[in-house]
Every structure is written in structure tokens, then in C-alpha cells.
Design a protein that fits this description.
There is one protein chain. The chain is of the alpha+beta class. Helices cover 23% and strands 32% of the residues. It has 7 helices and 13 strands. The chain has helices at 25-40, 66-69, 72-76, 112-119, 143-147, 188-199, 230-234, and strands at residues 2-3, 13-19, 46-49, 57-64, 80-88, 124-128, 137-138, 141-142, 159-172, 175-182, 203-213, 216-217, 222-223. Strands 1, 2, 3, 4, 5, 6, 9, 10, 11, 12 and 13 form an 11-stranded mixed beta sheet that branches. Strands 7-8 form a two-stranded antiparallel sheet. A hairpin with a 2-residue loop joins strand 11 and strand 12 (216-217). The longest helix is centred in the first third of the chain and has 16 residues, at 25-40. The radius of gyration is 19 Å and the shape is elongated. The two termini are 26 Å apart.
Length: 238
């Protein structure tokens, strides 16, 4: 992995970034846009393909210039792979570690064999509800804007998503490390929440890292050589 520097920038390019923990995808784009403006002395069209949650890390594809920004829909249709950790025995409102744990329950009934058996339910086409803490829009606002104000959202309908592979990498109750390859529109946080329901203990997504998008791998990405302050890390904006 290489550190991102101005020498990496071109006026038309597809830039692979390893998004840091605590950053929104928009913040990454904003910083790169500012650096490109400074480097080239002009404004170039820039965007990203495939949002990552603030508490997730890994591959974010940044598109620079009209030649590449018009490919965003095509790239978003690629399969994506992730590794992550699910914590059993409790839940959170956001389905990840952004919000506090609640509804603590026993995990004494959970065996390695049961974990493997439940994991089989998450292969193929499945229905899932998007998290209330998501970037989907309703009446002009992101859902997380309603959720963070404590407003209940009742309109959401389940989505049909495709899971090509879901398997367990390591088990150390209450933690489960997993790998997933999935199609467009899949919420890994929802998989974690639904896994907890299926195994009758509750669960949430403790950590997540995107490893690849189609043919593009995190191994070929640039690291962001910047640091967020502690206050910034605590003030997530979705």
C-alpha cells in the first residue's frame, strides 16, 4: 500500500483509497477534491463509487474527471467483498458500534456447530431491511438524520439482495469473524443484526473492512496520510 501524494493525481483517473476509520466517504472525496484543485489549479468533477460507513475501513473508489465519473453506476454493480467481526449477545440501534449496546442476552447455547449452521442461511438471495442509520433518503433527508434525532422510521420495505459467499473465518464467542461476497445494495450491518436474530442471541457489526470491488483490490490502494482529531472522530456525519 502506498501513501497518497500529489504525484498520484491525474486529471482523469480511477483512484483506489483505503478509507480510514471514522471518516465518511464524502470527507475523503472532499479532501482529494481540495488537493486536486491545488495541484492542477482547476476544479475537476469528482465522486466515489460505493459508500462506506464511517466506522468501516477499506476500499473506496474515487472517480476523477468526466471520463470516470460517468462510470459510477457501472462500477457500483460490481460484486464486493468484506471481512468483519460480529459480536453476539447484544444489539445496537445502528446495527454497528456507533450506538450503545442494549438487550444483553446469553450466548451459552451457541456452539461452533450452531454458528456454522446459521451461516448457511446467509448464502444466495435474501431479504433484508436497510438500517435506520443509513444514507438512504426519505423526504429529502438521509435516514441517519432522522435516526440520530430519535425519530422512528416505519416506511422501509425489505430489499432482495444477493450473497454469493458468506463463511465463517474464526469463532471465539461472543465474536465471529467472517468473509462475505455480495451484490449491490447489501447492508453488512443488516446481515449482522439478522444473524443475531437467527441464532437467538442478538448481534451487531463490531468491525468491517472492504477488501475488493470487482477487479479492484485493497492491496493496490493508497492510504490517506492524514489524521482526524479525537473531536472529529466523535462527531460522525454519516
Amino acid at each position: 500500500m502506498k501513501n497518497l501524494s500529489e504525484s498520484a493525481f491525474e486529471k482523469d483517473q480511477l483512484l483506489l483509497i483505503d478509507k480510514p476509520w471514522g471518516w465518511t466517504s464524502f470527507e475523503v472525496v472532499k479532501i482529494i477534491r481540495k488537493k486536486i484543485r491545488s495541484f492542477f489549479g482547476e476544479n475537476l468533477k469528482i465522486g466515489h463509487a460505493g459508500t462506506l460507513d464511517p466506522l468501516a475501513t477499506g476500499l473506496l473508489i474515487v472517480l476523477i474527471g468526466r471520463k470516470y465519473t460517468k462510470k459510477v453506476d457501472y462500477i457500483q454493480n460490481y460484486k464486493k467483498t468484506y471481512t468483519g467481526i460480529i459480536k453476539l449477545g447484544c444489539m445496537t440501534q445502528s446495527f454497528d458500534s456507533e450506538t450503545e449496546e442494549y438487550n444483553l442476552s446469553s450466548t451459552s447455547h451457541i456452539t461452533h456447530e450452531l454458528v456454522q449452521e446459521i451461516s448457511k442461511k446467509f448464502n444466495g438471495e435474501i431479504n433484508q431491511y436497510p438500517p435506520d442509520f443509513s444514507a438512504l433518503r426519505m423526504k429529502g433527508k438521509r435516514l441517519y438524520e432522522y435516526a440520530r434525532k430519535g425519530k422512528k422510521i416505519n416506511h422501509m420495505k425489505p430489499r432482495r439482495v444477493k450473497i454469493y459467499k458468506f463463511h465463517i473465518l474464526k469463532i471465539g464467542i461472543p465474536y465471529i469473524q467472517f468473509f462475505v461476497e455480495c451484490g449491490k445494495g447489501t447492508y453488512i450491518r443488516s446481515i449482522a443484526k439478522d444473524f443475531g436474530i437467527a441464532i437467538k442471541s442478538g448481534a451487531y457489526l463490531l468491525s468491517l473492512r472492504r477488501e475488493s470491488i470487482g477487479p479492484f483490490s485493497i492491496k493496490n490502494s493508497y492510504s490517506m496520510d492524514f489524521e482526524l482529531s479525537n473531536s472529529k472522530r466523535m462527531n460522525l456525519t454519516g
